[in-house]
Amino acid sequence: YGKNTIKFLRLHKEGKKHFVKEVEVCAHLRLTSPQEYLEGNNCLVIPTDTIKNIVLVLAKKNGIPSLEQFAIDICNHFMTTFCQVAYVKTYVQEVPWQRLYEDGVPHIHSFICVPDGIRFCEAEQCRNGPLIVFAGIKDLKLMKTTQSGFEGFYKNEHTTLPERHDRILCGELFCKWSYGECKDFDFDCIWKKIRECILEAFAGPPDCGEYSPSYQKTVNCIQMLVLSRVSQVQVMEVVLNNTFYNVVDMKNLGLTNDKEVLVPVEAPYGSCACTLGRKKFFEA
Question: Which residue ranges are tagged as binding site?
């Protein structure tokens, strides 16, 4: 049990310059005894309102040096403070505020919300067990207008989809990775590096791009690049929800439409997912 959707803004000031972190936290506990379920005995139950207040107090006292560190702080607090807690899991996601720039100059106290993906993390721990940390990015919408196709797929009497060697590749990405046991990582630096790998693998070189024969291959390229460059990542899950575009037929309007005006196909949409990790992690 626990408390969901604990939303707050943490404001940090260094002189005249302000820094903000707006987050949403979910904190769940499992107790050493199920007596509150079986017997209606609540003597070990930490009220969910108390859980909310603890999260807010930790934000006040410790700040949010990184999402992952804040999730770790929450786990550590419940494990060290309450002997009846057998397991704790914390989820934290961030509102994408970025500092506002005017003529290239960073503003000291103004920010803009930029929807370029939502950062999140999870931390979980069993009593007497290791602290495990996950991180990720979701709602990251990406598009490339060429260098994508889909050919040579299986066909039978139900197949109506034509082969395409040049199409728009567009989708919304969900990526989640595991660091394994918690260590003294620079979580902010690693997260930024992984995000750069995701964008590079999706788009290819800036002057020419890179051909994608399928959404599945793009997912694999993202995972392979991250695992090859970021040694701290042990396992990576990627889900790509696809958005398809159809070319508008303008013949009746007396116009030739050479893939210049397209409309999105709202539903149904495709989706592909894959989890890829290091062999030693799965063997462990």
Answer: 48-49, 150, 167, 216, 242
Enumerate the known binding-site residues for 5-hydroxyisourate: 48-49, 150, 167, 216, 242
Cβ atoms of 91 and 133 closer than 8 Å: no
The pTM (predicted TM-score) of the whole model is: 0.91
Task: Please return the burial class of 9, using the count of CB atoms within 10 Å of its CB with bins 0-12, 13-18 and 19+.
Answer: exposed
Write out pLDDT tens, residues 178-213: 997 777 899 999 999 999 999 999 999 999 999 999
Would 136 be classed as within a structural domain? no
Residues tagged in the binding site annotation for O2: 48, 242
Domain CATH number, residue 206: 3.10.270.10
Rounded to the nearest integer, the mean pLDDT of the chain is 95
Q: Distance between CA atoms of 138 and 12, rounded to whole angstroms?
A: 26
- Enclosing domain of residue 101: 2-129
Confidence of residue 284 (pLDDT cuts 50, 70, 90): low
Number of structural domains the chain divides into: 2
The binding site for urate consists of 48-49, 150, 167, 216, 242
